[in-house]
């Protein structure tokens, strides 16, 4: 039998971090692309906000556009009267859309990419449990999404301060937090699906499809009362961003719904990974 | 002690392939060959050993632990070399080794992997995406042994290695087996490898075990294979009575090839007064026996159907 084994290096929880760092390394490129896109867009929107505020030409143009479409992009008649209102309109919609894409991409790709690239045979035969590997990946993705949302939030605040348009930091914080909650809810859906898929490309298409579909539902819901149900099933409609921009505070029900989707989806993905053949 | 023990182990897939009622025992310290053609169930069995897939029914014990779900601590005692080495292309070979070593809780600098890397003439600084098939295989070999496992599970281990490296790899396996007592479970369809290395062999066909025996037992069962060339030209099977010894005797390119059981004495007597130009008598190779077993099983099953 074996005559002794090589010295065991530092054991314990640092291995979880080791696997999380490994996952971050795998997603490094998409993380920087995602961070650059989201932060740049938010900084741009926030930086040009003062050009839209109380601009009569803009108000005139808005009146000529279909109301339903404007609502779809979160634009209210009063959106352009304050910086916070502006941030809760088009910038918020694009923020949720972009952050949602990347969050969904990482979560839905978590396991399926290992299967599709046939690296699962290496990763899951290492002496770490499926549970540890799954939650290390999860931790890495959540950290990435939070890091991007913090950077985007900071860019918005700085641009608002620099252009002297920001008046209510709390309102901008609430709008940014609402976007983050929705991105986490998307991640929950991604985690629930990832163990069941076998192709990374189809996983990515499905993830982007879900985010886009929810965006379209939100857009179409504004076209008539009979389409209201579409808004109800769209995560884009979970928070009233305009109300948040006016200091309305975050709706507890919406927070619970987003958190539940995130938690239940994450747990469902974990249980499925334990049960599934790899 | 059994290092691997399968009792009525079954894995069913939707397409009907997998393994059926596998009873198998691999003993501590042996090099065990697991042979069969592609799709016979070798990789399925290995994937169950590594807990990548769960058995549909039956029991599987590895190093004394009954496999039921995920056993990360058990995997620390197992080294696995998959048939195809798929790793992260943007990592260097060294980074892959460091990652695996850390996962195993092993200090790479103190592990034997670096010494073996030199032996295998492997460049660890290059990125995995730039590796040839052979270099990826070498990385796979190092990954499987860096934590000095008690059980080595090898799936088609020499595919992609050149003949020199194959010899080096065989030497390395023997060394691990002899000096550390590593048990080796060796799946392949290259039967010469099995003949060179293995103590015992299991033959699997369409998910079922056909035979388990030592290499000597399997080849001895085939009696002797005789290849005779006579001074006279042409097919002399009838004239020299070779068909009486083996009704399936063949004549090809001037050579008469036939098989006999244990009647070697009788055969030599018969050939003694014939004008022989050349004579070759040997035990059948494992490959010949394997093909023979396969044909017999196929005929039997064909007959039953």
Automatic annotation (TrEMBL), chain A:
The keyword Repeat does not apply. GO terms for cellular component: plasma membrane. The chain crosses the membrane at residues 31-53, 92-112, 133-159, 171-192, 204-223, 252-274. GO terms for molecular function: ABC-type transporter activity. Pfam families: ABC2_membrane_2. Keywords: Membrane, Transmembrane, Transmembrane helix. This is ABC transporter permease. It comes from Cohnella endophytica. The lineage of its organism: Bacteria, Bacillati, Bacillota, Bacilli, Bacillales.
From TrEMBL, chain B:
The keyword Metal-binding does not apply. CDD domains: ABC_DR_subfamily_A (cd03230). It comes from the Bacteria. InterPro entries: AAA+_ATPase, ABC_transporter-like_ATP-bd, ABC_transporter-like_CS, ABC_transporter_ATP-binding, P-loop_NTPase. The keyword Protein transport does not apply. Keywords: ATP-binding, Nucleotide-binding, Transport. Residues 4-231 form the ABC transporter domain. GO terms for molecular function: ATP binding; ATP hydrolysis activity. Belongs to the ABC transporter superfamily. PANTHER family: ABC TRANSPORTER ATP-BINDING PROTEIN, ABC TRANSPORTER ATP-BINDING PROTEIN NATA. This is ABC transporter ATP-binding protein. It comes from Cohnella endophytica. The lineage of its organism: Bacteria, Bacillati, Bacillota, Bacilli, Bacillales.
